[in-house]
Structures are given as structure tokens and as C-alpha cells.
């Protein structure tokens, strides 16, 4: 039976992911969203989760920008997942990309890097060679991560931030927009500025 492609989440991030899939000639069957602002997303019908009737070859992407909510949705549904990689992204053939991960136009993922599951590489973001990103990481637009870095589960690198080489960012950390990170960052830390400084700790649970 032919695969059917679904998005979970019909807001702004879902719109960008739908656009990438349309550009890749992947026909999105339906969007699931229990609180949609509109009845369609780029002309794709939106239905509630209660109206969804599963078939064996359904493939999903959780197209929700919030890392914690994305994780909770993945953990509460037994879906199969596919990846969304924009035709205008540059992903090395020597990189690994986990299921459910979304890679936006002009993003770069270089050789030897491993992206976890359900990550977001947003527009124009760069992850250099030999990095390891955990599941649910979001590298925001125009952020750059230099070679040999490790980023823990659920962390967000804010827009335009820079992370120098060989650093470890813990899990569920937030790097503020425009920050310059020159030292390791512990789990749950919120870091801003140049050089980056911790302003608080924030556990999403
Ligand atoms: C496609 C898309 O739209 S993807 C979305 C991408 N979004 C981002 O990259 C946003 C990243 N988020 C940020 O930069 C946020 O400002 C955060 C998470 C760092 C902090 O947010 P909050 O927890 O709400 O902190 P809040 O706004 O209260 O600021 C706390 C202090 O940090 C400062 N601060 C906040 N963000 C930054 C920043 N990016 N750079 C420098 N200082 C900052 C504030 O000025 C404030 O300082 P003060 O206490 O001296 O007044």
C-alpha cells in the first residue's frame, strides 16, 4: 500500500515544513491539529486528532516548533516518522539525519555530523563537521555551530548565535539570539550575550 504523509501541527512552523514537502514533491495528505487557526494549511486539509483514521503506511512529521511539546507528542503517539529536507538545504552525504527531523532551506549539515530524531535545522543554520545533536534540538535561523560540538536533547540554539568548536551544550539549554558561546553550557542553562553568560536555569518539565 502507498505511504500517506501527515503533518502533526498546523501553525507557522507546520507551514514552513509543508512548503518544504510540497517543494520536494511529497504529497501531504492531511494535517492534524486540535486547535487550528484555519481549516487548511497551504491548501492541505486540517483535521482534529479525533477524526484521524490510521492506515498501516501512514508517515508523520511532528511540525511543532516548541521542543518540549514536540517530544511529548512523539511520546504519546505510536506513529512512524519521515524526514523533511528542503531541496535548498545542503546536507552532506556523510552526515546522519534522524527520523522526524526537519531541515529548512539554506541550512548546512556537514560531513561526520549526526542529527538526532525530531530536530529542527532552521533556515540558514549551520552545523559544521563531526557534531552530535541529540533528539529534539532546534538550531534557529542563521545560528552556527562549529566542528566537534555536542548538543544535548531538547536544546535550542537561538537565532544568529555562534558556538565555537569542540564545546558541549547540555540538554534542554537555551542559547539566546545572537549569543557567542565560548565555554561548555550545562543542562537547562539559559545563556545570552557575547561572551555567553548564564542568566537562569529553566527545566521544561
Ligand atoms: C522561525 C522562528 O521564528 S525560530 C525562533 C527563534 N527564536 C529565537 O532564537 C529566540 C531565542 N530567545 C531569546 O533570545 C530569549 O530572549 C531568551 C530565551 C534568551 C530569554 O528569554 P526570557 O527568558 O523571556 O528572558 P527575558 O526576556 O526576561 O530577559 C532576561 C534578561 O536577559 C536579557 N536578554 C534576553 N535575551 C537576550 C539576548 N538574546 N541577548 C542578550 N540579552 C538578552 C534581557 O535583556 C534581560 O536582561 P535584564 O534582566 O538585564 O533586563
Describe this structure in words.
This protein is mainly beta and 205 residues long. The protein has two domains: 4-81, Rossmann fold, CATH 3.40.50; 84-200, UDP N-Acetylglucosamine Acyltransferase, domain 1 (3 Solenoid). Helix content is 11%, strand content 31%. It is built from two helices and 24 strands. It has helices at 12-23, 67-76, and strands spanning 4-8, 28-32, 40-41, 44-47, 58-62, 84-85, 90-91, 96-97, 102-103, 108-109, 114-115, 120-121, 126-127, 132-133, 138-139, 144-145, 150-151, 156-157, 162-163, 168-169, 174-175, 180-181, 189-192, 197-201. The strands form four sheets. The protein has an eight-stranded mixed beta sheet, covered by helices on one side. The chain has a six-stranded parallel beta sheet with strand order 7-10-13-16-19-22, with no helix packed on it. The chain has a five-stranded mixed beta sheet with strand order 3-4-2-1-5. A hairpin with a 2-residue loop joins strand 3 and strand 4 (44-47). The longest helix is centred in the first third of the chain and has 12 residues, at 12-23. The termini are far apart. The model has no long low-confidence stretch (mean pLDDT 97). The structure holds acetyl coenzyme *A. Residues 122, 140-141, 158-159, 174, 176-178, 190, 192-193, 199 line the site of acetyl coenzyme *A (ACO).
* CATH class group of the largest domain: Mainly Beta
Number of domains: 2
State the CATH topology of the largest domain.
Answer: UDP N-Acetylglucosamine Acyltransferase, domain 1
CATH architecture of the largest domain: 3 Solenoid
Mean pLDDT: 97
What's the N-to-C terminus distance? 39 Å
Task: Report strand order across the widest sheet.
Answer: 6-9-12-15-18-21-23-24
Number of strands: 24
Gross morphology is: globular
